[in-house]
Design brief:
This is propanoyl-CoA C-acyltransferase. Keywords: Lipid transport, Lipid-binding, Transferase, Transport. It is an enzyme of class 2 (transferase). The protein is α/β, with parallel strands linked by helices and about 400 residues long. The protein folds into two domains: about 140 residues, 3-Layer(aba) Sandwich (Peroxisomal Thiolase, Chain A, domain 1); about 220 residues, Peroxisomal Thiolase, Chain A, domain 1, CATH 3.40.47. It contains 14 helices and twelve strands. α4 crosses α14 and α7 crosses α11.
Length: about 400
């Protein structure tokens, strides 16, 4: 397996854009990425297109890549449609990485795009509700009633985690305050208004203990990554970021189980030859505020128990902290157009490693990790992808 380089990245603003479609979003992200890499469409050998919900929200099935990219100059090239819940575009990057690493091609483009906003919110919520095993009973502790299946599931996990760790609802609010501060510094973020603990706790209750500000929102957007071999990258006049590892894990339905994010991170650390102590900046899957704290444990940044709370309260995970977490604003503030989220994480981390993140920059960032998961199976995320980058 040869080394694979990220040579170009680009993304649209994230938000609710009722007037835009998948074509518009995809075209913008692809154009920005190719410009960033300093190449044209002819330089792309293969395309991996991540999308999760178009079939439900827009009705577009089967040829999402071909239809979304038909006007980008990429028509006629090999295109692979990738659907893996909220981990769709990180999975697309994994496949692009494998294609280049195995010498199947010199270059590849991973795209993540999602159009979630709809005039009827029930359509958008319905897309999320299909990311579970529809024949599986809902887990113990689940309480329905919000209209959002996943927020009810996240709330049940949050209540259990609070019971085990002694975490307070104010700590979840602190996650949001940190997230909104980061989002205020990110011109592409969906939510750019700073907030306070009191405002977070005072926002509408969605599913106890999750208030509105503790929940990621429906949104639209696209992001793309141009990857290539080291030899090809030497021809380009752009900063190079190395993909050190990528691991994809699916949930086990029975038997001895660990959280998929924990298994994927362990595999990625082993591939990269590093440990959690070597990571400087992280983008993780905070679909709800408690998830950030839970993933501090899953990714090995602290011991199980109260370690995650101490990390947060100490400022270690703030922008500029030793372990900067979600400097983009994460899903809570940058936004969560599900099929685009994984690619957006990689865009942010690439800019961090390039030293181009502006006011969000983690000083001297050399190693970065992205954790992206999706779906629900047997009480865990159905899939998780962990990617490690370095300069």
């Amino acid at each position: 397996m040869r080394k694979v380089v990220i040579a170009g990245v680009g993304m649209t603003p994230f938000g609710k854009f009722l007037s835009r479609n998948l074509k518009s979003l995809s075209e913008e992200a692809v154009s920005l990425t190719l410009i960033d890499a300093g190449v044209g469409p002819d330089a792309v050998d293969q395309i991996y297109f991540g999308n999760a919900a178009a079939g439900v929200v827009t009705g577009q099935e089967m040829i999402r890549a071909q239809s979304s990219l038909r006007n980008t100059g990429l028509a006629g090239k090999p295109m692979f449609n990738v659907e893996n819940a909220c981990a769709s575009s990180s999975t697309a990057l994994h496949l692009a990485w494998m294609a280049v690493a195995s010498s199947a091609c010199e270059t590849a483009l991973a795209v993540g795009a999602e159009k979630l906003s709809h005039e009827d919110k029930a359509v958008s919520f319905g897309a999320f509700a299909r990311a579970v095993d529809l024949e599986e009973p809902l887990p113990e502790g689940y309480q329905a009633g919000t209209g959002s299946l996943f927020m009810d599931l996240y709330a049940a996990k949050a209540r259990e985690w609070m019971r085990k760790t002694g975490c307070k609802v104010e700590d979840f609010a602190r996650v949001v305050v940190k997230s909104r501060h980061a989002g205020s510094l990110n011109q592409l973020a969906q939510f750019r208004q700073p907030t306070s603990i009191e405002e977070v706790l005072g926002s509408r209750m969605v599913s106890d203990p999750l208030t509105l500000f503790m929940c990621s929102s429906i949104g639209d957007g696209a992001a793309a990554i141009f990857v290539c071999s080291e030899e090809y990258a030497a021809r380009l006049d752009t900063p190079k970021v190395l993909i050190r590892a990528s691991a994809v894990v699916s949930a086990k339905a029975s038997g001895e189980r660990e959280p998929v994010a924990r298994v994927a991170s362990r595999q990625a650390y082993e591939i990269a030859g590093i440990g959690p102590e070597d990571v400087h900046v992280v983008e993780l899957h905070d679909a709800s505020a408690p998830a950030e704290l839970i993933h501090y444990e899953n990714l090995g940044f602290c011991e199980p128990g109260g370690g995650a709370i101490e990390l947060l309260r100490s400022g270690v995970t703030d922008i500029g902290g030793r372990l900067s977490v979600n400097p983009s604003g994460g899903l809570l503030s940058r936004g969560h157009p599900i099929g685009a989220t994984g690619a957006a994480q990689i865009v942010e981390l690439t800019q961090q490693l390039r030293g181009r993140a502006g006011a969000r920059q983690r000083p001297a960032a050399k190693v970065a990790l992205a954790e992206n998961n999706g779906g629900q199976l047997a009480g865990d995320s159905a899939a998780a992808v962990v990617t490690i980058l370095s300069v």
